[in-house]
Design a protein that fits this description.
The complex is a heterodimer of chains A (615) and B (326). Chain A is an alpha+beta fold and 615 residues long. In chain A, 20% of the residues lie in helices and 26% in strands. The chains are: A alpha+beta (615), B mainly alpha (326). At the A-B interface, α7, α9, β29 and β30 of A face α1, α5, α7, α9 and α14 of B.
Chain lengths: 615, 326
């Protein structure tokens, strides 16, 4: 469990009860001096304080904008551990767990309602197929489905109106998923009290009705500079790689624990852990400034064989679907898409503001070529979009993480863009050659995937016409991507840090594509103030690996103000040559990460689309 | 010679990385060519033995026979490439078949076994999927190209004028361009007016790092009839002018390289105002591959009247000069 969800119930119900005159377990009065409770009231967490109380009557609940409006979750996890996501059945699966995934709705007890009064709660037809509302029986402590696409209104007897009812809502999907159709994520609930066939008019409800508008939480991507990471995991079978990752995780743990490493054992023969699925969250406000929600994995549409078992979604179902952890399927058909749909090609630019453009929770970045439905899904989430689309079509693997990463920095922006630089690599090699080190070897003891000896001298690299042309072509393409990043993000030259990577070309379909020739040190994993970098196996210069020294200087010292204190991050290295580099990937490709729900990710304050009266 | 019905159009419009995995993984096996016993009448993966002149065919057959006697393992290795085996390539980050690097690592000893497979005696490719077979041929062409061995000139020139899918034509042209002997250069320039091979010839000339090739392609840029063609020529010019590649060629080629880059820079800067979209992107990328000093001269001498375009070019010069100064 990533968050103490129990607090929500205490906060929510207790505060609600307080509003009805009972003891206040939280110490909150539950109402403010200028809030006049409505007699006919559909109470939701409209003011987003994680509590449901009289204060929620102080805002216009029919309006959902950046300052107000209740939220709810798509119930994509599996609280009863039956390997079926909770939205896939029509019950509340566990009163102690699944019930906490329901956003609560109460009708205010209307003791003064006239005799014979009845009530009706209805959900709008556009949203009804995508949501499910349950009613809680306080005596039996059970939940019963009362509203969905098949039944859009609930009748309340006089006693219900007078005592009030307790409901919970879940979504069956996220906005932008194929099964969500054109649903925009909003649901409007209407509560009407009538007597003698006419609405019961009160001072606050002259038409006898109350309306609440709610919005399903979007999915939010986790990025490399996301600060709350506590787990690095990998499905690698390489002991030497694990050793390197372990060392990095231990360093990160020492800085600010707990950070752990999870070695996945039951993975279906796919070591590309980053590419396999994307980690992300859905969140809603909780009491005391916390958030509730769940981790939601986003699987790639294809596996590495034609067998269904190779599909990432099937591993997610088996191994990552449990309490507060689930998955969603964005693609329309299995075994569609391409290398672009691997999640190394989908990343998160850290938070930024550039003029009128503001992305307080980061902005999704991906290469072109991803499935249309994936792009549509990202953009539909709004909070981290529209996505920034860059050209990765020149790369043989085609992933944005081959050339870009993002690290915290002690600057006004708080982060810098780290780029693969063939220019820096060649410049260093030329410097060393001029110093008389041209015969110095790199990649010593390493072999390519076909077992050919990879050892090569500085002189040989610099005299390789094709390798130099490929590296320079790669640099020109990276330069174009950097120009785009400067325009979109507003980055300046001193916010871009280069690390040395040489590129080679690989032929496919009548064209040459580029892929890292030297280990791609930019394709790193960062945790806390530590980075885990591919060992570059560069030439020895002054007794040290020259490429390592360059990376150490750029990322591990105060030269570029990298790290929260600007003094550099702790740079650790993992030998990924055999299992990743020579198969066209590196550390980032071979690992993935996760962490607790970030309370600071209050997406509801930054959504672009609003409903009701815009404020 | 490569089956036309298997064509992948290749080229700029098609993104080969956007491979449909269901097609790849479900690959339909087929028999491409039956093995043959008579070398003289045999066919290769790319061309028929008869596509070569009798003398060239006999010469190649003789070279092949000699190496087979002294180094049979090289032939066995070329006929047992791992990168087209699904259990191998599916392990790669981009799980598509590829053998170019494997062949490249074999070095010069791969040349004759590969040429034999391409133009004299095709290996058995029973059971390979369309993608695997294409990867096999492309990888072989890529290896031949990188070797820049004169013995490949006649077979590649002969193959270039046979009917090929575009990806194969481009692979052959690339091999001719990297070789860049007089006959190969002539074959490429002679194909610039051949609609079916023009795109490939442009690619090939972009691999030929000579002043003549720079002049030829620069003239083609001025005559480009579409944005797509302008982008393709700009890409080729950038490759031809790549200053790092010229440096790799050694001190003796630097004066020639400087002259070639000056020609290219002038051509690209002059055509820059006419570019749009992808063509402009390709122009910028090509200019970024030239050296700072040549770029500065070309921009100063051919400054666009449009201030925003001039600023874009100045920014390219600034980046190049900053790098040089670092």
């Amino acid at each position: 469990m990533k968050v103490a969800k129990f607090g929500w119930l205490l906060g929510g119900v207790a505060a609600f009860v307080v509003g009805c005159g009972s003891d206040d377990e939280t110490g909150s009065t539950g109402s403010g001096p200028d809030v006049k409770p409505k007699a006919i009231s559909l109470l939701v967490d409209a003011n987003r304080d994680g509590l449901i109380n009289d204060l929620d009557d102080g805002v216009d609940k029919s309006v959902w904008d950046r300052t107000q409006g209740a939220t709810f979750l798509a119930n994509l996890d599996d609280d009863d551990l039956d390997k079926v996501r909770d939205f896939e059945d029509e019950i509340v699966n566990d009163a102690d767990t699944d019930a906490y995934d329901l956003a609560r709705i109460f009708t205010r007890p209307f003791a003064e309602a006239p005799a014979g009064a009845t009530g009706k709660i209805a959900i709008d037809a556009a949203a009804a197929p995508y949501v499910r509302v349950f009613r809680f029986d306080e005596a039996a402590k059970t939940w019963t489905k009362v509203l969905d696409g098949a039944s859009t209104s609930l009748s309340l007897a006089e006693a219900d109106v007078k005592k009030g009812v307790h409901l919970g809502i879940e979504a069956k999907t996220l906005v932008g998923l194929p099964e969500a159709g054109a649903w925009n994520g909003f649901v409007q609930l209407e509560y009407v009290v009538s007597a003698d066939g006419k609405p019961v008019a009160t001072e606050a409800n002259p038409d006898g009705r109350d309306v609440a508008r709610m919005r399903v939480a979007p999915w939010m991507m986790v990025g490399n500079s996301t600060p709350h990471i506590d787990t690095v995991f990998s499905a690698t079978t390489s002991a030497v790689f694990v050793k390197g990752i372990d060392a990095g995780v231990a360093a990160a743990n020492a800085q600010k624990g707990p950070v752990g490493y999870w070695q996945i054992k039951n993975w279906p023969g796919d070591q590309w852990t980053e590419d396999y699925f994307q980690t992300g969250y859905t969140l809603m406000p909780w009491a005391n400034g916390e958030v509730a929600g769940m981790n939601v994995g986003m699987p790639r549409p294809w596996g590495r064989s034609e067998k269904d078992a190779s599909l990432p979604v099937n591993w997610l179902k088996k191994a990552r679907t449990y309490r507060n952890s689930g998955y969603m399927v964005v693609y329309k058909k299995s075994f569609t898409g391409s290398t672009f749909d691997s999640h190394g090609n989908h990343d998160l630019v850290p938070p930024y503001t550039n003029g009128a453009a503001s992305y307080p929770y980061g902005r999704i970045i991906h290469g072109d070529g991803i499935l249309d439905e994936t792009k549509a899904f990202y953009d539909a989430q709004e909070v981290q979009g529209p996505s920034l689309v860059v050209d990765t079509n020149w790369l043989y693997v085609g992933h944005v993480d081959e050339v870009f990463t993002y690290l915290t920095a002690k600057t006004p922006r708080g982060w810098k863009l780290v780029i693969a630089s063939a220019n820096l690599a060649v410049e260093l090699l030329e410097q060393w050659q001029k110093k008389g080190l041209g015969a110095e070897k790199m990649f010593i003891g390493k072999r390519w995937a076909d077992n050919a000896d990879a050892t090569v001298s500085i002189d040989e690299v610099l005299a390789d016409e094709d390798l130099m042309a490929a590296s320079q072509a790669a640099q020109a393409n990276i330069d174009a991507m950097v120009v785009q990043m400067k325009q979109e993000v507003g980055l300046t030259d001193d916010e871009i840090v280069e690390v040395p990577v040489l590129f080679m070309s690989v032929r496919d379909g009548g064209k040459d594509y580029n892929v890292a020739y030297s280990p791609g040190v930019v394709n790193l994993r960062s945790v806390n103030q530590t980075v885990i970098v591919a060992d570059p196996f560069g030439p020895k210069v002054d007794g040290k690996d020259g490429f390592k020294a360059s990376v150490d200087e750029s990322l591990g010292t105060d030269k570029f103000a990298i790290g929260a204190e600007g003094k550099g991050m702790q740079v650790t290295y993992a030998d990924d040559w055999d299992f990743y580099h020579r198969l066209d990937g590196e550390v980032h490709c071979g690992t993935n990460f996760d962490g607790p729900l970030p309370a600071s990710w209050q997406w509801w304050t930054s959504m672009k689309t609003t409903q009701g009266v815009t404020k | 010679m490569v089956d036309e019905h298997e064509d992948d159009p290749g080229g700029d419009e098609v993104n080969p990385l956007k491979l449909n995995l269901s097609s790849l993984l479900g690959g339909i096996a087929f028999v491409f060519l039956a093995s043959v016993s008579s070398l003289a009448n045999a066919d290769g993966l790319l061309a028929r033995g008869s596509d070569l002149g009798a003398a060239d065919r006999a010469k190649l057959a003789s070279l092949v026979a000699r190496q087979r006697r002294t180094d049979p393992a090289s032939f066995a290795a070329v006929r047992d490439l791992q990168g087209i085996r699904p259990e191998v390539y599916r392990e790669r980050r981009n799980p598509i078949p590829e053998v170019g690097r494997e062949l490249q690592h074999m070095g010069g000893k791969a040349l004759l076994p590969v040429l034999e497979a391409l133009v004299l005696d095709a290996p058995r490719v029973d059971g390979l999927s369309t993608e695997e077979r294409q990867a096999l041929v492309e990888g072989m062409l890529s290896a031949v190209a990188r070797l820049r061995d004169a013995r490949a000139s006649a077979p590649m020139r002969a193959a270039f004028v046979t009917t090929q899918p575009e990806w194969a034509s481009r692979g052959i042209a690339t091999a001719l361009g990297k070789l860049c002997d007089a006959a190969s250069f002539e074959r490429l320039t002679g194909s610039l007016r051949d609609g079916a091979r023009r795109g490939a010839a442009i690619d090939g000339l972009g691999e030929c790092r000579t002043v003549d090739a720079a002049r030829t392609l620069s003239a083609e840029l001025a005559r480009a009839t579409s944005a797509e063609e302008s982008a393709a020529i700009a890409r080729a010019l950038g490759n031809l002018g790549a200053s790092w590649a010229w440096r790799a060629l050694g001190a003796s080629r630097q004066a020639e390289g400087k002259e070639a880059r000056a020609i290219i820079a002038t051509a690209l800067v002059r055509s820059y105002p006419e570019t749009r979209g992808e063509s402009r992107v390709r122009h910028r990328a090509a200019l970024a591959m030239l050296d700072a000093s040549g770029l500065r001269v070309a921009v100063d001498a051919n400054r666009p009247s449009d201030a925003s375009l001039a600023r874009e070019l100045d920014e390219l010069v600034r980046v190049a000069e900053k790098r040089r100064a670092r």
